[in-house]
Amino acid sequence: MDRRFHGELLVLGIKVAAPTVWEILQEAGIDPAPERARVTWADFLRSQADALLTAAKNLIMDLEDAGCRARLLIRDRDGKTPALFDAVLKDAGIDVVLSASGCPA
């Protein structure tokens, strides 16, 4: 935490040594922030894929609530889109059409 405070003070133009910030925090009884848990790249990607699947499911529910029937969804060929995303839409009767290669976004 003392590094973050030190960095923010520098951004504000207040020049103070990092050990001084540490001493002030110690005197005030403020403990340093605990170390953050390490998140692996695989965990991060998995959470992003889960968010994308949730978005697909929410899209389907929103369309149903609005009484709309979508037959097609056109998307780019980005490899980051999991096949499960397309499968969720397919199960709802929505065909996924990939845009032409090199087609502008």
Number of domains: 2
**Poorly predicted regions:** none
- First CA to last CA: what distance? 42 Å
- Number of helical elements: 4
Radius of gyration over all CA atoms, rounded: 24 Å
Shape, principal axes of CA atoms: elongated
Explained architecture:
- The protein has helices at 2-11, 18-27, 41-65, 83-91; strands at residues 72-75, 95-98.
- The protein has 105 residues and is mainly alpha-helical.
- The protein has two domains: 1-36, no CATH class; 41-98.
- The chain has a two-stranded parallel ribbon with strand order 1-2.
- β1 (72-75), α4 and β2 form a beta-alpha-beta unit.
- α3 runs parallel beside α4 (83-91).
- The chain is elongated, with a radius of gyration of 24 Å.
- The two termini are 42 Å apart.
Top keywords for this entry?
105 residues; single chain; two-stranded parallel ribbon; mainly alpha
Question: What topology does this entry show?
Answer:
Layout: H1 2-11, H2 18-27, H3 41-65, E1 72-75, H4 83-91, E2 95-98
Parallel strand pairs: 1-2
Helix pairs in contact: 1-2, 3-4
Brief overview:
The protein is mainly alpha-helical and 105 residues long.
